[in-house]
């Protein structure tokens, strides 16, 4: 498990939504599958960038959300060095990114121009 954003302070005993966004990555190296939980926090923002960790650098992965807003194919090396940019709809407080190995022989998509 990897925290991908700086940790927010939580007040006990009454837990409130964090002020800052948070992202937690779970990755199983044996299956090369993972999931990223993205939490918006109370700060309003519409776009975020995240860099993943601990992936197999030479494996090609499919990364997508269940609603298809994010759907891309990149190598583990690209996902750990280049940022994924995504839109975060205001009415949704969180999102899930599913990370799965692409089919054998798949090639990564070209990176968008900066």
Describe the structure.
The chain has 114 residues and is mainly beta. The chain has a single domain (21-101), classed as Immunoglobulin-like, CATH 2.60.40.1180. Helices cover 5% and strands 37% of the residues. It contains one helix and eight strands, in the order E-E-E-E-E-E-H-E-E. The strands form two sheets. A six-stranded antiparallel sheet has the order 1-2-3-8-5-6. Strands 4-7 form a two-stranded antiparallel ribbon. The longest helix has 6 residues, at 76-81. The model has no long low-confidence stretch (mean pLDDT 81).
Count every beta strand, where a strand is a DSSP E run of 2 or more residues: 8
Q: Give the helix tally.
A: 1
**Low-confidence runs (pLDDT<50, min 5 residues)?**
none
Q: Under CATH, the topology is which?
A: Immunoglobulin-like
Q: Which CATH class is shown?
A: Mainly Beta
Helix share, percent: under 10%
Q: Beta-sheet strand percentage?
A: 35-45%
CATH superfamily: Golgi alpha-mannosidase II
| Main sheet strand line-up | 1-2-3-8-5-6
By CATH, the architecture is named Sandwich
Gap from first CA to last CA:
30 Å
Class from secondary-structure proportions: mainly beta
How do the SSEs run, as a string of H and E? Answer: EEEEEEHEE
Shape: globular
Count up the domains: 1
Mean pLDDT: 81
Question: Which value, in Å, is the CA radius of gyration?
Answer: 15 Å
> Major sheet: size, sense and barrel closure?
6 strands, antiparallel
